[in-house]
């Protein structure tokens, strides 16, 4: 049953309580006993090749797995041709930076439906990504293209849509943001069965190799009629529940990277790691539930 695969944990961006440079973050994460880092370039890309190579060396030395979050200003379903062209360029720039960093995957938000039908928006997204992939391949860029499940109903990025995209784009992998899926489905992630459905869909539609190394974003979430409102910290008894996901990943022996998008970044990455370690040690469920 259990293949004892490792689950990696880390923050989305610089730890909250750390004032050093980006190049010093890997050593800080090692000190915190974390082993993953998502580098946030969500406003714009501002890390030079030279700086990226320094971060890469530090990450290697401290055994930190890197990923990169591309700028928010990406919309492959825009009604404006120039916005789509800029989106392709921004994602390619992010892939190039991720290559210098030796980051495994570039996470990005696909865009908004706007006035388009979901089918039309999805078609444009796939077309746009095919072009990005072609150029990335030409340059020999190795990172995966990682479309993320999105939390607002106005945003392109349901689980089904992300799976369709990954089917069409070589060198891509789904990024599963469970807080976003929780918001998008208005709270329909309540127990193990709900997580099982999500992971089975990925396995059935894409293949089991997509579960290995699955890139996950996790935090608690407040949602409303339109979906996502805001990311919440652990300790307030908000959903989605983390314990059933931890149990499932361990029972199925899935190697995953879990990035904390909690307002308490590294602190909640550590809480999630404690829950996973508690499951491995077969600690009492009631004790672990108190951490949620
Ligand atoms: Zn994101």
Describe the structure.
It is a single chain. This protein is of the alpha/beta class and about 290 residues long. It has a single domain, classed as Divalent-metal-dependent TIM barrel enzymes (TIM Barrel), CATH 3.20.20.150. The protein contains 10 helices and 12 strands. The strands form 4 sheets. A 4-stranded parallel sheet has the order 1-12-9-8. Strand 3, helix 3 and strand 4 form a beta-alpha-beta unit. The longest helix is centred in the middle third of the chain and has 22 residues. The two termini are about 25 Å apart. The mean pLDDT is about 95.
CATH architecture: Alpha-Beta Barrel
CATH fold naming: TIM Barrel
Number of domains: 1
H/E series: EHEHEHEEHEEHEHHEEEHEHH
Radius of gyration (Å): 18 Å
Structural class: alpha/beta
Query: What is the count of helical runs?
Result: 10
User: What small molecules are bound in this structure?
Assistant: zinc ion
Strand order of the largest sheet: 1-12-9-8
Number of strands: 12
The coarse overall form would be globular
Largest sheet: 4 strands, parallel
What is the CATH level 1 assignment?
Alpha Beta
CATH superfamily: Divalent-metal-dependent TIM barrel enzymes
- Runs in which pLDDT lies below 50 for 5 or more consecutive residues are none
Helical content band: 40-55%
How many angstroms does the end-to-end distance come to?
Answer: 27 Å
Determine the mean pLDDT. 96
Helix and strand arrangement:
Elements: E1 7-11, H1 25-31, E2 36-40, H2 49-61, E3 65-69, H3 81-101, E4 105-108, E5 111-112, H4 118-139, E6 144-147, E7 155-156, H5 159-168, E8 175-177, H6 178-184, H7 192-206, E9 214-218, E10 220-224, E11 227-232, H8 243-251, E12 256-260, H9 265-280, H10 285-289
Parallel strand pairs: 1-12, 2-3, 3-4, 4-6, 8-9, 9-12
Antiparallel strand pairs: 5-7, 10-11
The chain binds zinc ion.
Zinc ion binds at residues 69, 107, 109, 148.
